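Hey, I'm writing a tutorial for new members on how sequence and structure tokens pair up, and I'd like a real worked example in the thread rather than a made-up one. If someone can provide the structure for the chain below, I'll link this post from the tutorial.
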Amino acid sequence: MNSDLPAATDVRPVLLGLSPAEIADLLADAPFPAYRAKQVAQWIYGQKAASFDAMSNLGLQDRAWLNQHFRLGNLPPDDERVSTDGTRKYLFNISEAGEKPAYVECVYIPDGDRATLCVSSQSGCRMNCGFCATGDQGFNRSLSAAQILNQFYSLPFADDISSFVFMGMGEPFDNTDEVLRALNRLTAADGFAFSPRRITVSTVGVVPGMKRFLDESECHLAVSLHSPFADERARWIPAQKAYPIADVLAVLRHYDFRHQRRLSFEYILFGGQNDSLRHAKALVKLLSVCPGCRVNLILYHPVPGKPFLRPSPEQAFLFRDFLSKNGLFATLRQSRGEDIEAACGLLSQQKKGGKI
């Protein structure tokens, strides 16, 4: 151990998020046969073992040695909220002992015999989007692959999850290395073996990370748009100034989304601000350069202190229908978990403020 680190900090390496080969390298000097490393990886990715002690085909001394030198990396939620519609929101404290508390959220959304998990990639966020509760917190830290995967690994409903959306706290491509590592473990045959077609990663358009993701992953991409007009989008999404949507679209044109891989644009409808016919017409024109893309319309989830309103259902349907009639595949997403404040950042914001 490094004697310069605070005694309260646990510096044992974490195994969750590592490949079987990386686990084998870490365990190369362990006082047990080399094949134990493969067994450990199988317990993590095949069984989602809750602890080293649960790895029953390892000897007691082997398990004790693992506990002494490593951490599995799973951490139970610090808080849970359950909605009347079945949505569950979980809050995790990801800080080490002696550190300032840092929180991150995920949301479990059941839908019949399927369930989606919305995960976070950062605690807080640097993007400072004007409509987002997470942005109000500022940036705290990026999550490790283990901390991203733990949002799935530690849940009692983990076996029911059929798809993932990286649409929680943080900008995934502000944390590209760890997000790609987490995606690899979710989709690899020697990982959790989910189809990449079951995973969608959302971005405001951070181009360098987005390009790496498109080249190194086969998962779906969602781009947060919210306005077809550059000046208006820049007021709500400051990243527009560094990565204009025109530049984002110029990159996307080089990729084929007409088959299995999906490109979607997230568009939150703010009543009276971006839900007009003028916006709809401009949106159709803007996205004409991306054949096969779709638009996911989202009714604004109110955040205290934000100057945005939810549009009427009638206006939302008119907006959707105009897009559909003019060649864009458009859906209107059903709001879930409103009674448990499922909008990203609200629960962690309350926790930081000592309100829960």
